[in-house]
Amino acid sequence: MSMKGELQDGKEIALKRLSSNSGQGVQEFKTEVQLIMKLQHKILVQLLGYCIKRSKRLLVYEFMANNSLETFLSGLS
């Protein structure tokens, strides 16, 4: 499930809630997130961070306003 959010400084973000049924441990999740955060490419939204609270896991991405990824990649924007 994805939703729009806002940081305290007013920056818009996209939040993605991950399934708690994945069976992945907390340390494995943190390691995977750290690897994803190192990926940078013009067609990838940047992963800004994550949150783990009990069994809930959220990924925090930069927000891409007004268009879908499909529109951006096809050059129709």
Structure, explained:
The protein has 77 residues and is α+β, with helices and mostly antiparallel strands. It has one domain (2-74): Phosphorylase Kinase, domain 1 (2-Layer Sandwich), CATH 3.30.200. It is 23% helix and 34% strand. It has two helices and four strands, in the order E-E-H-E-E-H. The protein has helices at 26-37, 69-74; strands at residues 2-6, 12-18, 47-53, 56-62. The protein has a four-stranded antiparallel beta sheet with strand order 1-2-4-3, with helices on one face. Strand 3 (47-53) and strand 4 (56-62) form a beta hairpin. The mean pLDDT is 82.
Could you give the topology of this structure?
Elements: E1 2-6, E2 12-18, H1 26-37, E3 47-53, E4 56-62, H2 69-74
Antiparallel strand pairs: 1-2, 2-4, 3-4
Total count of strands: 4
Proper CATH architecture: 2-Layer Sandwich
Record the strand order, biggest sheet. 1-2-4-3
Q: List the domain count as a whole number.
A: 1
Report the sheet-strand fraction.
Answer: 25-35%
Largest sheet: 4 strands, antiparallel
- Residue stretches low in confidence (pLDDT < 50, at least 5 long) are none
Report the C-alpha radius of gyration, rounded: 14 Å
Number of H/I helices: 2
What best-fitting shape do the alpha-carbon axes yield? globular
Derived structural class: alpha+beta
What is the helix content?
Answer: 10-25%
CATH homologous superfamily - what is it? Phosphorylase Kinase, domain 1
Which fold name fills CATH's third level, the topology? Phosphorylase Kinase, domain 1
CATH class category name: Alpha Beta
Keywords: Lectin
Protein name: Concanavalin A-like lectin/glucanase, subgroup
Domain Protein kinase: 1-77
Pfam families: PK_Tyr_Ser-Thr
